[in-house]
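**User:** Here is a favour to ask of a fellow structure person. Please take any protein you like and set down a full record of it. No explanation is needed for now; the record alone will do.

**Assistant:**
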Amino acid sequence: MKLTKTFYILLLVTGIAACDKTDDQLGVPRIEWVTYGPQEIKAFSDSVYFEVYYEDQDGDIGINDPSAYNLFLEDQRIPLTYKFRISELTPDRQALSISGNLKLSLPNTVLVNGSTAELVNYKLYLVDRAGHQSNILTTNALNVIP
């Protein structure tokens, strides 16, 4: 009998711990690449396009404050972060599971080291209204040509 009680208590504690982990993960948005490119970019004229799929179990991606940013694209050649704003996708206090695609364009990519071709990687992530940062995506190397 004592062994049975111990088993049920252990099962209950394990179940509660599993729920807590899942609850923490529910609030964190997840993103994955759909596409990006082109693989070769003519400096000062070509745009780079990014498309990501997003999922958020509590639906708090986006913000309507025009001075706030929640989508970030980092140029890995130099310490430069491009900041963008995604408008609210669901109303505040509405815990709705959402998913979809976001498209982003970065115009006029530059050459950092003068007139020779160079490779660039970009990192992309988003932050929801609760401050949860998504996973970070990194592109393969893209070739920037003069």
In short: The helical segments are 2-26. The longest strand covers residues 48-56.
